[in-house]
């Protein structure tokens, strides 16, 4: 039995759904066949041709109640195969019980744990009051525009009457699972410096690379100030602004390298910036314009907020957060359900990167980021991503408890049929 559960996980992991050419059809077929074995209703939505979104339904007995949506993405980030101990799509199970694969943490584990939890609940005879939907969405790793974003905007979604969304979280190196109630907003900044070209042997002011380096130094000071707050334990990772240089571009190329005795007239650097929902975005923008890329130093910048439409602020400019207090019954139910299954939760956090949950929160729905992986190093997007099989199995029990609690929950305080969202 256990070996079958693990082998189903391995089979999903072995489907190469790495961007930029994910085998979505194979992944969809796998999910649909699992769904059929569980007698779940299924449909495949293709908001963009070739990018299937598989939507499954376990019907609840009371259709007037809002539904539970369990979301997961089917794509994974690419892997540098030669830097892995075991091939990233082999799902190799080693003698420690560690399963190595791209997607083992981010987030094929979660998608199939939902299904395994439902398998167990069905076997136990449990019948949900609320309908439970599972969405297996494409393209999260490249922004979710062909997947969760379209889905959240669709009439199909509206008709689901979703009341609560669960989406991905992060592994936890401690025994406490992590939960996420919000996420940072991505800003991708390119700073470009121009300057007079000249002989490689000449010392003169205002070269492009000198100008760019002044910016980089300024960015680095800011980065250090933010990182220090985290290192000192004053702020959590998701509560500071992160800035990381992700590319550097300058020089005059030759077929074999670069011209060495010519100072270039242009130099560019790119930064991945993540802004907490409660941060002062305007002051950051001022810092960029005045300190990092001042026109007085011949600098220009392009700042793509990743997707203007989806920000961390709602229409009235308030940060979009999912409540983690008594105003949100789903939060308390999750806490209780995890405890009941012998799991421990840490303090809820702001997700340091981005997930599809933002598209659901944007609609005003509560969304909780949660991937039940304790005692596990954080290896998403890293080499040798793995998940231990016992942690994986434990996670199924955790979801069994959560889904049971969510699907049974009836809010007696409200009239039947009302959307019990936040
Ligand atoms: C901003 S869209 C890209 C989403 C991606 N999500 C997970 O890593 C991220 O970079 O956070
Ligand atoms: Zn992910
Ligand atoms: Zn990812």
Automatic annotation (TrEMBL):
Keywords: Cytoplasm, Hydrolase, Metal-binding, Signal, Zinc. Zn(2+) 2 binds at residues 106, 141, 381. GO terms for molecular function: aminoacylase activity; metal ion binding. GO terms for biological process: amino acid metabolic process. GO terms for cellular component: cytoplasm. It is an enzyme of class 3 (hydrolase). Its main location: cytoplasm. The active site is at 75, 140 (proton acceptor). Its EC number is 3.5.1.14. Its cofactor is Zn(2+). Pfam families: Peptidase_M20 (PF01546). Binds 2 Zn(2+) ions per subunit. Zn(2+) 1 binds at residues 73, 106, 168. It is found in: Cytoplasm. This is N-acyl-aliphatic-L-amino acid amidohydrolase.
């Amino acid at each position: 039995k256990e070996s079958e559960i693990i082998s189903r996980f391995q089979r999903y992991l072995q489907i190469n759904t790495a961007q930029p050419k994910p085998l979505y059809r194979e992944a969809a077929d796998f999910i649909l066949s699992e769904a059929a074995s569980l007698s779940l209703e299924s449909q495949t939505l293709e908001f963009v041709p070739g990018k299937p979104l598989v939507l499954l339904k376990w019907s609840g007995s009371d259709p007037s109640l809002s539904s539970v949506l369990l979301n997961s993405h089917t794509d994974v980030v690419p892997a540098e195969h030669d830097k892995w101990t075991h091939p990233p799509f082999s799902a190799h199970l080693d003698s420690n019980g560690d399963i190595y694969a791209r997607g083992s943490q981010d987030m094929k584990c979660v998608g199939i744990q939902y299904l395994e939890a439902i398998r167990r609940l069905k076997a136990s005879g449990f019948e949900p009051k609320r309908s439970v939907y599972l969405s297996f969405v494409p393209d999260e790793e490249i922004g979710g525009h062909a997947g969760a974003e379209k889905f959240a905007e669709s009439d199909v979604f509206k008709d689901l009457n979703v009341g609560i969304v669960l989406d991905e979280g992060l592994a936890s190196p401690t025994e406490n699972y992590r939960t996420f109630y919000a996420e940072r907003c991505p800003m991708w900044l390119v700073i470009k410096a121009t300057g007079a070209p000249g002989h490689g042997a000449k010392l003169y002011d205002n070269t492009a690379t000198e100008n760019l380096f002044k910016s980089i130094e300024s960015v680095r000071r800011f980065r250090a100030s933010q990182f220090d707050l985290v290192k000192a334990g004053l702020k959590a990772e998701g509560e500071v602004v992160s800035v990381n240089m992700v590319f550097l571009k300058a020089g005059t190329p030759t077929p074999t390298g670069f011209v060495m005795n010519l100072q270039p007239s242009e130099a560019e650097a790119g930064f991945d910036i993540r802004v907490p929902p409660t941060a002062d975005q305007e002051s950051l923008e001022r810092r960029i314009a005045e300190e990092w890329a001042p026109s007085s130093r011949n600098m220009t910048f392009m700042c793509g907020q990743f997707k203007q439409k989806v920000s961390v602020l709602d229409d009235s400019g308030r940060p979009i957060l999912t409540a983690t207090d008594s105003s949100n019954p789903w939060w308390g139910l999750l806490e209780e359900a995890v405890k009941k299954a012998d799991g421990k939760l840490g303090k809820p956090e702001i997700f340091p990167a981005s997930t599809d949950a933002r598209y659901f929160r944007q609609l005003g729905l509560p969304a909780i980021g949660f991937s039940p992986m304790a005692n596990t190093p954080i290896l998403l997007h890293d080499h040798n991503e793995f998940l231990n099989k016992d942690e994986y199995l434990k996670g199924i029990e955790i979801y069994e408890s959560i889904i049971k609690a969510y699907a049974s929950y009836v809010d007696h305080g409200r009239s039947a049929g009302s959307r019990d969202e936040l």
